[in-house]
Amino acid sequence: MLEIKDLHVKLADEDKQILKGVNLSVGDGQVHAIMGPNGSGKSTMSYVLSGKSGYVVTGGSALMDGSDLLGMEPEDRAAAGLFLAFQYPVEIPGVGNMTFLRTAVNSQRKKRGEPELSAAEFLKEIREKAKSLKIDADMLKRPVNVGFSGGEKKRNEILQMAMLAPKMCVLDETDSGLDVDAMKLVAEGVNSLRDGKRSFLVITHYQRLLDHIKPDVVHIMANGRIVKSGGPDLALEVEQNGYADILKEVA
Amino acid sequence: MALAKTKQDATQERLATLTLPDGAAWATAARADAVARLRQAGLPGRRDEYWKYTDPASLVQADVVPAAPYQTDEAPVFGQIDRLRIVFRDGVFDAEESDDLALEGIEIERLSDATQMDIHWAKNLYGVLEKRGQDPVARPLATLNTGFATDGVVIRVTGRPSKPVSLVYLHRKETSDAILHHIIHVEEGAALTLLENGPAAARFSKVLEVEVADRGAFHHIRAQGRDHERRAVTHIFARLGDESLFKSFTLTANGVMTRNEVVLELAGQNGVAHVAGAALGDGAFHHDDTVFITHDAVGGESRQVFKKVLRNGATGVFQGKILVKPGAQKTDGYQISQSLMLDDDSQFLAKPELEIYADDVACSHGSTSGEIDDDAMFYLRSRGVPQGAAQDLLTRAFLAEVIEEIDDPEIAEDIQSRLESWLQRRG
Ligand SMILES: Nc1ncnc2c1ncn2[C@@H]1O[C@H](COP(=O)(O)OP(=O)(O)O)[C@@H](O)[C@H]1O
Ligand SMILES: [Mg+2]
Q: Which CATH code of 1.20.58.1970, 3.40.50.300, 2.70.150.10, 3.10.450.350 fits the domain covering A2-250?
């Protein structure tokens, strides 16, 4: 599904290398988790995959189902099936959540040559999905993320993911700042999308989320590289001992 | 203070091209008074503080700069609205194209008819509000209009007419130089919606004097047409009585030069005045909104909302002032002027002002000039919204506050559809 090879990334405005050779391969239907200290480059990697400006790829590649992600416009990556749940979802005053999502869904469908959803079809679908994420109608009407609590913003990300039905989902600290109940909702949202084909890359600091979303592989990122990979046990180890031991071990 | 020689000359040169219309004694006196005032003030020049951001030369000069009428097969603005149409072609009333001027609750006459009558209520308004509006800042182009306007409408609103009055300004001749002057008196408790649309002429000067009596209401929605080359200077002078309502919205999506002035006085208690404008500028587009609101009574509310979207080197100007006179306690004044620049070539020049002589008031103003927010843009694109559509969504969002100033949903939708087609014409 996703094949990242020796990815090097620096900041556009500064001579600062952030990613220093990331290698990562997520198979169809798999869930991979990425853990790692703050500032190690996890968000940078998710931004670069989805095409945010301000970063320069100085080496390496990232393919999704064989196509070169890095050469595509952000909207084309989305239409090709990539989704990023933002660590910090953006507030957009004046743009209704519903209008935004409908434009997004139909833009993607159009690009893929699929028929657009009618207003009624769209409404039916979003109501069902919002309900299971405990997002009320009022939140759908409000401007995108404006006045949403931290937890509401994260649930809104998952709602978008459910509506867009991507192939490859990247979740950047979607669990941060959530209470236990909200985290369960998010995990259920993710699990309900697991269908054996769709893949997930879950960036998190906490083992807790991984109790609910069972990863196939856990990676540790530090200083712009994946320094260790393993099974679910690796997350438990981090939970108990922090990163220090692991970093010492690979140094 | 004596006028500078250059100003004197420019004024003289312009006056030499104009002829005073005939009329009854009162009209002739009002016109003569205007000419005398104009000679004293002189026409505006580039050095005038009030014209710091807009060069008045093409509005002042003797000869009109030719402007090709713009051909479009787009459905006319307000075309679907049930209204009483009054058509002016290059600044001349067109009886054939216009509807019958009879409507319940309202009396409509042509200015050139009213000014022929020895006794007419228009006497108490013609040039009167314009003259009041010269203090503290001179507006000589409006004075010129009072002196030489050849046509226009005179409307007395006595009730609540069933449909809006719609002034349609057609532009057909390349060198038309139109001067229109309208007078509207909304009587106590009466209400009128006035629509205006069209480019009017190669060069257009228009004055609208509006008196809204106690508990009267005046709604005004205007769209200044699609012509690229036309030039316009317009003035609205309004005076509001107790508990009256005044709401004016203007959409300007084209035009090489526009100066829209609004001079409004809240003379009665608890009056409400909203003045709003959306300007969409592309390329050779210079748009200036100059607003002066005076609170001279207790409990008035005024609101100025002006938004400009500029691209390909367009220029937007906003000069807005709220003056709260002594004793105008409990005034609630709000002013916002914002521009959204779609590229680096465009510019926005703003001069917001507050002058307050009462202590128990709430006034606020803000002015911003910005570009499309990068983070919002990326967020939308990351969801699959193409760049152009994302920019449109954010532009619509930027304009939403000003469109909300239009009360009538049908009219708001019509105006919104003009924004949409402007967005479609992406350069
Ligand atoms: N746009 C940016 N401008 C400046 N520094 C940045 C930018 N993006 C990332 N960085 C820096 O790159 C490093 C990695 O950041 P990030 O990818 O956010 O890490 P993580 O998500 O693992 O906490 C940090 O040192 C951060 O300060
Ligand atoms: Mg991060």
A: 3.40.50.300
